[in-house]
Amino acid sequence: MLTDPAFIRRLDSLYLLARKVLGGSLQADRKSTQKGTGITFADYAEYYFGADYRAIDWRVLARFDSLVIKLFELEEDATVYLLVDCSRSMESKFQYTCKLAAALGYIALKSLDRLAVYSLADTLTPLLDTCRGSSKTVQFLSSLESAESLGTDTSFDTCTKVFQARHRRRGLVIVLSDFLFPTGFQEGLRYLQFHKHDVYCLQIQDDIDTRCDWKGDIDLECVETGQHRHVTITPREAQAYEQAVMQWNENLRRYCVRNGIGLASTSTEPPFEAVIQDILRRGGLVA
Amino acid sequence: MTFLAPTMLWSLLALLPLVAIYFLKVRPRQKSTTAFFLWQNVLQEKSSYSLFQQLRNFWSMLLMLLAATAVCFAMGRPEWSDDRQDLIILIDRSASMGALEGRSTRLDLARQMATQVIEGLNGSQLASIVTVGQNITFLSHLTDNPRELLDAVARVVPSDEIFNWNALHNLKTHSSQWQHSHRVILISDGNFGAHELPKHIELLKIGTPQENIGLVAADMAYLPNSENRLAFYYQIASSFNHEQKIDLTVSHLDPSGSEQLKKVIPLTITPGIQAPEVFTLDDAQPGHWVARLDIHDALESDNLAYLSANQPPPIRVAVDASDPFFLEHSVLAFSQGKNLLTLVTSRAQDISSSETDSSAQPQTANNPHITLVKGATPDATLAIIFQPEGNSPWWSHLGSEVETGTPRVIAEGHPALRHLDPTTISFVGARQLTPSEGAQVLVADENDLPLIYKATRSGRSVVVVNIDPLEAEFYFSAWFPVLVHSAATHLAGREIPLAASYRPGDAIPIPGASEESVSQFYRVDPQPSDERPGDGRLPKSTSEKSDVQGKWLSAVDRIGFYEIISASGKWPVGVSLLASEETVLTNTNAENTIKPLRRGHAPAYLLTVLAIAVLTIESLLYHRRKVD
After folding, report:
1. So what's the pLDDT on residue B362?
2. Is the pTM of this model over 0.90?
3. Is residue A111 a contact partner of residue A24, using CB atoms and an 8 Å limit?
4. How far is Cα B22 from Cα B56, in angstroms, rounded to an integer?
């Protein structure tokens, strides 16, 4: 139960750890390159039509007869988007994935970041609309708890496009998935990066994904599409499959490294706290 | 192609459930995968085998069906053609098969030939081993097991029997009960008039013409009205191509079993069957006699003739009648020569007579005592009753005299009526009566009034003649003493005299025996070392006795001396080969008529091998698919 008090206490300890790792108030730590109506002076700019009169630096006007306006650093709260893979391929590791998402979202809410949660499948489905503040914690956890695997396929590309259409505001996009997308992961990640999102990939795979213990005649069925294929699996085929999975994961890793995308891979065996701690200590989630 | 067991082809119906079971068996396990697209990439490399992969289950099922079909057809026992039939292998074990061919006997060669035939079959055909001699004996049932057949061949032992054509007819009776068509192959030397062999029996001839001389006939009997003069009759046959000079010796065996040479007859034997000859031996004692040809030739068993000279004691008859004159004279009429009847007038004389004859017949005291009675019922074991009177256990409802019609013989050929024509007898004075229960009516009139009948009760037997001999003037009829004699010899069990020698397998009459009585016989072998092993039908030593029930002994199939112990005493019997067809070992008239025998494995065997091979392949495929 994600809304269980004991579970929330475990999330609290993770939040404390996050504060210690990241240092201070998270709200002030996130500096934006945009200029806005903050309290910290950033620069001067020539007055332009329509600019806020309150920003005109009258002292400069008095001394130099030049109409300039003061620019202040924009103190904005970060937006964290959790894209949780809820396709049927995640059924075996869905609970684990939800726990990880809960931990990350909890930390975000407690840090007064904006949080939005979506489920990934053949299309993007909102689980939690953008919200902010720790008061939304229970709502957030409930939305995760009520989430279930759905869809007949995983279309990461479509989902990212739908996501971008909904949220033009940049933010930290954390994708929690096994990244075994038939159409590939590159297009979707590239799309998110193209729209200036900070992207972080949290790959969760279990033995069912990575190993093949079957031998002989098998009626192979895709858990998502329901496709069937009669195959005869010999050790050679089993080994080829395991190598293909390893190769797929290696491609993901290389792509992320090459494109500055944070990546953490885990199986369902280690406790989710350990995974989150490891991610925080490596600073992968700091935007 | 034909099938010997076509009903087994119904097992092909099992293919339908087999197909269903196979589809259930080969149905793959269903497994879900989260990376189906990766599997498709992996399996793209095997696309070149995709057609084979798709059809593999189909091929596997075809192999299974092929194996099952092969097994079903094998159970149907297919044959390429109709000429592969069950084999009945007859092995001749008659006496001529004991003739030497070099170091082996013909029977040894026959066994070798049978072994070759069986080994050539390779278990592809059903076969049965049968021996034929005096009778046919099945040593194995129809089987395709070579081991069983070879064991049966090993159990074939030599015999002194004479080839019996009727035995082959018995085989035909057996063959009508066999389910399948069959071939009968006779492995024989052909010493039996092979040209008369039925066409359905194929002869596989073994052996070559051999030079042999043997006794083919011999008899011995005391001459009538002479004191111990014994006539010896013999006939000799030779298959030599030229004359042979040999000696024929005649010896008497004393009670200790040693031979006492009585006569040596030099003979010149020409090829073929000689004319029979007779000579007499003076002062010849009764008992065992041996006639021996002094020659070593191909067949030893026909060089000997075992003969028994019997001097049976006369049948003692007493008369119990108020007017015994004619009855006594009817007995006296047959007391002139030995072996017939003798009249006893009192018990004392009966005993003294027994003591007098004790040298010839030690058990004379047990000889039957027959009583001739008129108008009464004697308290005797054996009796001939004329003119029934009063109450008797032998009849009931005795009425008054009736006028009889024409007599008619009910039991034609009955020993009590031997040499008698009852239809010419006038049964005057016959009375209405009812014979005792179980009586056998021999002669009756048109109204079924019993005129002569035999009754047996509690070990006692009587012949009742329903006639008043005086009124019918039967005493003056020639049939009167004849009837007394025939009835007496029949009641005494002596209607058939013992011959001096019998052939192996002949039925030997047992003197004094009835259908219910049990007698004993045993072999008297002066040379036990000559005993042939393995024949369980005969006593192996003189001390081993066998029981035989009834009036005939037919279990003797080996030559030699025997003793029969019956109710009438101990009777010596000789058994000799005495068969020209066994002695004349020129089998040139016999020709091989055997058709070629099929060799090699049966289609059922090949189908079974095919099924095993196919199953092995399918098993490998299945193992690779399911277990790898």
Report:
1. 38
2. no
3. no
4. 13
